[in-house]
Specification:
- Four copies of one chain form a homotetramer.
- With 360 residues, the first copy, chain A, is an alpha+beta fold.
- The first copy, chain A, has a single domain, classed as 4-Layer Sandwich (Chorismate synthase, AroC fold).
- Helix content of chain A is 28%, strand content 22%.
- In chain A, helix 3 crosses helix 9 and helix 6 packs antiparallel against helix 9.
- Chains A and B meet through strand 1, helix 2, helix 6, strand 11 and helix 7 of A and strand 1, helix 2, helix 6, strand 11 and helix 7 of B.
Chain lengths: 360, 360, 360, 360
């Protein structure tokens, strides 16, 4: 029931971390959009483990195959299926977690909810499921670019632990971001973040942080009144990413400390176009995009899998001590960037179609 | 398209601020639940304007009528319709906003999206629509109490501007909260908040703040893997409330600055029951409730309607200056508390049904 | 859960036969469509009881009120609520059915499913709920006419009991249909149908029949592959009408007896336009409209409420004998015509939006 | 948008006839259900071409692989993906249909709707997509059997062209049905049907017919009021099968010729159980199952692909003549039986979950 996302550009994902394959079915992609495996693969490569010394050295080639929905390089308008087969996985490192629940993981809640659990590599609860989000997001981006050539979605790591990076959301590019293995486009902060991550790894610990995301070239009028406000759907999208525990848009939490007179964004004409002279609203007013930049943040808790010894209990109700083995990220933030961008793309593509459906 | 919420306990709301009536249709409420107008009214009265000297002195009686779905004091299992007729409304104060867009309001985006706008009292974009959320939330709470008698959902104002209240989420009650017109249960902070709100009003300005919400007596296993994680659906629910621009759960944004070893919640047995000894997860792990208290926050920007003069433009593209007239809240936080509780109730009721549907 | 219909033009209906009111919320109607109470009322008047000597003499004025979503005569793009208050209802005639289940009615199944039942006038299971369908259908027709001026949806009674009317689907109009109280546009058959219905009433019995419906001026490309084929969604729509137990389209059941070589519709050019020279497909091929006339039939069983004595059981498991009192239709077919047209309109409006959402 | 089916037991299918693979993702299957490839394969083998001399001699091994959602022989509660890779396909026989539209096929409507079409083997519009329905239906049947051991779903060919088989719906079994290559369990009619099909093939023509389906051991209370009546959802399910142009339930079209006094099903006690003494309602009253046998029919038009020469037009608007090559079924009815059973299973499984979700 939770494996679906979207209303008109609707995806269903599947796959366990150490199962046969992961994948996604996209239902509702318009016909005639240029899509091929190379463009999907390029996004997957940005998410892939083993990209740099900072992230897990696991080798997951993550080769995508398009199974349906694309013919002669263009979408057919019918469902697009994409798969990534799991390579040789080594589940032996997870044997200890077959019975004992890893603290702050999904082990216990899946056990309690379903009574039957794939313990290998975290099963369906593994962040490996985000492969499918990124594959679908690549297609959503192709649709967005076809309809709104000027749209530009850029995510970056804006904080790691207590390090905050000064980044200009009006100008930052994916090239700037990908130039740093931390995916923080501010070189100085990036260097300090690298140190922080390495230090965490050395002490067998993990760190969290914040991914920011801007959308420039936003169309006017996306989002729906009342429940499907654009920030509500973006919030849901990002909060569904593993380890995400917070979301805000525009001034967000900080804005709660401002006065209305400071916070309001005055309107002014910019040639023919209505603009605001500030953007505390983050590009959304009354739940609907006003054409200004979308600017949002997603808070990621530190990775739960640590190499230190921790207290826990087993499925038979006995107390136990466990510690992780194998290869795990000390910090997921760099790899979270393309995932955030993908989820934002999925929401925008869906809302763009919803908007088009109702226009006279 | 945005007027629906929920999958199994599904609501559709309607109504403009100065239209004939507002209301809601609930589709999917189980049969046999005791529901009457008095219990709905009690919740509406907590949301109603004019409750205290802090909030708008507008007199909106907001009397609810049940139109269908309840017979002899119990739900029928079929759709429940509830309505609140608008009393004598005075749209004259809004004449200035017929052409000129109020900054940081929905006026411009609705104009841009629909080309036809009810300018009276904010129309559909007015926070008056939350009447319908609270009426539906009251029914959701009746269902929750019928199925989980121990459940306890309590919201409160945890900050106003830069004033933060120390509140014990393990023990705070609705009685504590409603004892203060600010709905901040900490007496000392409440008094200072009152001053801050009065000062804002005197300077024809407005303030924002944060509503916190705890759910105690949570059932285990609510929430779905991947996209419909409990925090994702709660986030969407709260971010859809007018003026809400941020959401977090558990350690949230603050947790991004912790180490994994501090942040992980160790498991321990408490008699037969698996518990965690800390609750940085906020009661949700892997998107599914673990039985610990849900603890979340919603950030509300300062009210956009201020009595000061502001720069704006009109629908014909001319620059203009406007200032609000009439009666408006200098701070919506106290009235937001029952709205937050209602949205949380709707999400939990929906997820409880989803969980029950799939249990063998 | 069953009170919703549609995906993009989505309705939620409510109301019991003898409750306070019936109504509908439409979510997803485009903005700027001319809608007023008079146009809704005109359709409701075609469905209303007491129109002629053939149908029930109950006086239900069925005055519609628009509660939201329309401003200055045009839709706002947000949810439209419409209500019909129930007048003075007389539930006393239903006292006998409080405990005893009427054969072939919903009394027993509602009792079994919900354990709590509104026995007054059939409650939610009464065909009186179709008021809401017709009100929503009138709005759907307004949208269709705005987008496809040439569209023309005409239903008629094509059979009553064993009387079949020869009607030319290419030319029949609503004026032709409404000229006869049977809503059969063939004068000679109409007269015989009138006799049959009167004879049934005299013998305290009831009759069934078939409503046919044609859509001329159909746009090309409506319907979706695989599950949401146009005939599948039309079938669901009509089969959801009370007493409808069968549906077919094009050659339908009769087509199962033809050879492929007879049944196939050859293509030919008609100027620039691709046409078929026959239309056994009923305007739908591969689930998608081909621009030819849609032609479908809905089978209605005879009315279950008869004035003869019938064997049944009570909710406490005792055998009993009942017979209906009060005012009931001996034949619902004439009143079913606008209901069929409304459901067809709702499906087409929804699919038109779905189609537009995905067009490049 | 049309590639999804179901609300709680929700499937998304994909795949073109001559593409890489076909498959399905099931979202919402309960955890702990015994599922393996052998049980899926058994159902696929009943649908497979090349089973008998009556159906197409194409060799499609149709081997199913479970990609996710099943672990140690039991469902995990998360999404189940299944795939069938297409073997060596020969698209050369379809070269003629690259430009010219086959009469009464989806070629033209897909071309018109999407502007880009996979002409190989019919692409997404090929009935080969039903592989995915049958795979999903096998899982739905496993769930139904786990929850309602006494349930028994049996489909059969009840007519071919003008040959109608007398079959006792109260006793017919799948063994009886599968004993005949026509899947008509009445031996005498089966033999005549065989002749009719062979004669059609010899004359390079095709025939249609009717599949009937009974469900015995039905639970009480499935189906929802108003729009999601059980017959409406069953109707949609069967009408979505390729070539299906009609559906009825219980007395169906024939019942329109009966009087109410004949048609009503009297209630009587059968021990503790409320039963009806006749079953013209086909097991559904007021849209909700009454525990009696469900009995329904689906009308299939004759196969559109014939080996005779036919008039048509091309995508560039020129008139043309085509005739089919390759291997095609002269009659799809025998292979439609497991497809009908699968769709019925999907509807019942979905409605069973919906019912469970709302029960106090």
């Amino acid at each position: 029931m939770g494996d679906h996302f979207g209303q008109l550009f609707r995806i269903a994902t599947f796959g366990e971390s150490h199962g046969v394959a992961l994948g996604v079915v996209i239902d509702g992609c318009p016909a005639g959009i240029a899509v091929d495996e190379a463009m999907i693969q390029a996004e997957l490569d940005r998410r892939r483990p083993g990209q740099s010394k900072l992230v897990t050295p696991r080798k997951e080639a993550d080769r995508v195959s398009i199974m349906s929905g694309v013919f002669e390089g263009k979408t057919l308008g019918t469902s697009i299926a994409m798969m990534v087969f799991n390579g040789d996985v080594d589940s032996s490192k997870y044997e200890d977690f077959r019975e004992a629940f890893r603290p702050s993981h999904a082990d216990y809640t899946y056990h309690a909810k379903y009574g039957h659990r794939d313990w290998r590599g975290g099963g369906r609860a593994s962040a490996r499921e985000t492969v499918a989000r990124v594959a679908a997001g690549a297609v959503a981006q192709a649709v967005l670019r076809a309809w709104i050539p000027e749209i530009n979605i850029v995510g970056w790591v804006s904080s790691i632990a207590d390090l905050d990076a000064p980044v200009d959301a009006d100008t930052v590019t994916r090239v700037d971001v990908d130039a740093h293995i931390t995916r923080c486009p501010d070189a100085e902060t990036a260097a300090r973040m690298e140190d922080t991550i390495k230090k965490a790894r050395k002490s067998r610990d993990t760190v969290g942080g914040i991914v920011s995301c801007v959308v420039r070239g936003m169309p006017l009028g996306l989002g729906e009144p009342v429940f499907d406000k654009l920030e509500a759907d973006l919030g849901k999208a990002l909060l569904s990413i593993p380890a995400c525990k917070g979301f805000d848009i525009g001034s967000g939490f900080a804005g709660t400390r401002m006065m209305g007179s400071e916070h309001n964004d005055p309107f002014a004409m910019d040639g023919d176009r209505v603009r605001t002279t500030t953007n505390y609203s983050g590009g959304v007013q009354g739940g609907i995009s006003n054409g200004e930049h979308l600017l949002m943040r997603a808070a990621f808790k530190p990775v739960a899998t640590i190499f230190q010894s921790q207290s826990t209990v087993t499925s038979s109700g006995e107390e136990a001590t466990i510690s992780a083995k194998g290869r795990h990220d000390p910090c997921v933030l760099p790899r979270a960037v393309p995932i955030v961008e993908s989820m934002v793309s999925l929401v925008l593509c869906d809302h763009l179609m919803r908007h088009r459906a109702h226009r006279l």
